[in-house]
Amino acid sequence: MLVRDAMSRVVLTIGPAHTLRQAARLMSARRIGAAVVLDPDHSGPGILTERDILDAVGAGHDPDHETAHGHTTTDVVFAAPDWTLDEAAAAMARGEFRHLIVLDGEETVGVVSVRDIIRCWVPARDGARALTV
Description:
Blueprint: H1 3-6, E1 13-14, H2 20-30, E2 34-37, E3 46-49, H3 50-58, E4 78-79, H4 85-95, E5 99-104, E6 107-113, H5 114-121
Parallel strand pairs: 1-2, 4-5
Antiparallel strand pairs: 2-3, 5-6
């Protein structure tokens, strides 16, 4: 199975001036863990994840005044739509992150997450129970 089969094609895109609270609200409303940040001052897209927001708030930053600009990862590993899910998972494991922006040439065409990959590898079953620890 390929990244194109698992990725989310609807991508939340924000700008560097969005506050962390604005980004968190948008991500929460869409039930996603990352936003693609398009900053005209940087070549290529960056990514802001739920972990970035959590780290900022945990460090005492005010989410109403801190902007995505200061918390965006710009040194991003990108996936191609024709990567296998094994290749995407390996890149995530090596980089210790949970989301990959998917580029087709220079165009952002999706985001693939660990959750997306797991859903493909382990199809949901009717009546499946969640494991509690």
